[in-house]
């Protein structure tokens, strides 16, 4: 949509996809590391707030159990957040303490409000079946790597290849881009203002 911000596209797509006035839509935002998922997710939540509706954000970065965690985080979200929420049961997720390298506290997900989940591995088949909208953020690997290292520096640099290999395995098995209802250009996501 020319002239429309990426976050406005996502909110409009959720409204179009929601049937029978769904009160708790779920948006999954996936893409390679450094593609712009987190920026987009924060902007979507902010836009919903500016339009008078609260939304809740879950970042898989807070759930990954270390550098080998995309698969586990994706299962965790389905088992503890999406499936319970779809069944009308309480939903919660457990934070991973990267410093202690151990599970940490649980966080309750408020019922009845839009939920945005972002991270590598969010858009699996099982997760997509429980969500209102799937979004894929596309960006070439070289640009993503430059962004990710600029963002996380020496913390991420030694793990880039290991993480990228896990993303590739997930992509071959789950085909997240093909499951997306909306594909956005990561350069466009990063270049737009947060609300618009």
Describe the structure.
- By secondary structure, the protein is of the alpha/beta class.
- It has one domain: P-loop containing nucleotide triphosphate hydrolases (Rossmann fold, 3-Layer(aba) Sandwich), CATH 3.40.50.
- It is 43% helix and 20% strand.
- It has helices at 6-17, 37-50, 70-86, 125-128, 141-152, 160-174, 176-179, 186-191, and strands at residues 26-31, 56-59, 91-97, 102-109, 115-118, 133-138, 182-185.
- A five-stranded parallel sheet has the order 2-5-1-6-7. A two-stranded antiparallel ribbon has the order 3-4.
- Helix 1 crosses helix 2 (37-50).
- It is globular, with a radius of gyration of 16 Å.
- The model is unreliable at 191-196 (pLDDT under 50).
Write the layout of secondary structure elements.
Layout: H1 6-17, E1 26-31, H2 37-50, E2 56-59, H3 70-86, E3 91-97, E4 102-109, E5 115-118, H4 125-128, E6 133-138, H5 141-152, H6 160-174, H7 176-179, E7 182-185, H8 186-191
Parallel strand pairs: 1-5, 1-6, 2-5, 6-7
Antiparallel strand pairs: 3-4
Total beta strand runs: 7
Tell me the β content: 15-25%
Categorize the overall geometry.
Answer: globular
Low-pLDDT parts are 191-196
- Helicity range of the residues? 40-55%
Spatial strand arrangement across the major sheet: 2-5-1-6-7
Q: What does the largest sheet look like? A: 5 strands, parallel
Protein structure class:
alpha/beta
Q: Which superfamily, in CATH terms, is the homologous superfamily?
A: P-loop containing nucleotide triphosphate hydrolases
Radius of gyration: 16 Å
Distance between the termini: 13 Å
Q: How do the SSEs run, as a string of H and E?
A: HEHEHEEEHEHHHEH
Tally the structural domains: 1
CATH topology: Rossmann fold
